[in-house]
Amino acid sequence: MVLEENVSLRPYNTFGLDVQARYFARFASADELRQLLRRPEVQHAEKLILGGGSNLLFTQDFNGVVLKNEIRGLEISSEDGETGTALVRAGAGESWHGLVEYALDQGLSGIENLSLIPGTVGAAPLQNIGAYGAELRDTFDHLEAVAIGTGELRVFTAGECGFGYRESVFKNTLKNQFVVTAVVLCLHRQAQPNVRYGAISETLAELGIEGEPTPHDVSRAVVHIRRSKLPDPAEVGNAGSFFKNPELSQAKFDHLKSQYPDLPGYPVPGGVKVPAAWLIERAGWKGLRRGPGAGTHGVHDRQALVLVHHGGASGHDLRQLAEEIIASVRQQFAVELHPEVNIL
Asked: What is the Cβ-side half-sphere exposure of residue 122, based on CA atoms within 13 angstroms?
């Protein structure tokens, strides 16, 4: 394994920001990771585990070691004929959407609503990815992770991961202490697809899919929706949804609803979740472009939840824009937005 010095991270973050890592290395197994962690240059340096780079905003060079997770492998590790479930094991370096496609090809359902979410399998449990009425924790069985300090392999159950809305223990109490090497999901042979959230039902009809949709149909609809709303990072730098959808108390939501009758809301335990995109658009940010010429960065014109980098901006520029959006929404609605993207 080569430990490179002064490596540009531009190809490894979907915002396409040209920052440098002091050291950079790749690993394709838990053993390779352990070997890297034992190297003196790595042991005493700040470490960043990199997957697809789709949930990061670099605001400066990284004066530490970037370790790129390239652990592969997809397999059905066990199956229960009585319950119609199967455990699917995926290497943390696999693409998330690749795992969704593999599951569908094997006749398994449960993660089709999470189609086309960017990033790798290993990053999925860190923030409990979710979309269109589904979350990772709905199908999660366990994960395997290597302790950065000792190299020990540990198994984490769903309860031990402490999943919340875009949250897990790996984002707070166990942050920077473990590297996920594999994720195991419990998927189904004959589960009823979930088409209740968002525009899935309408999109199925638009695609000419009638009757009871299959998991393949739902995946196709979700992919269609995402491609119609979200820019391709290969064409326009972005990290998908930049902000979390805020959860309000019922009283707070009712108060806002009285002022803004068209405010959408979705019941959640303890309150109501409102779309951050609606708040940002209503505050006047959707489609904004900043910078010389056609603009170097701004807010996507079809989805206000997405900050975009057209080239020539810095991570600092994007962070400043995010902070201005947060302040604007706070002032107009008295609602606090929080980034979903990790800002470094």
From this structure: 27
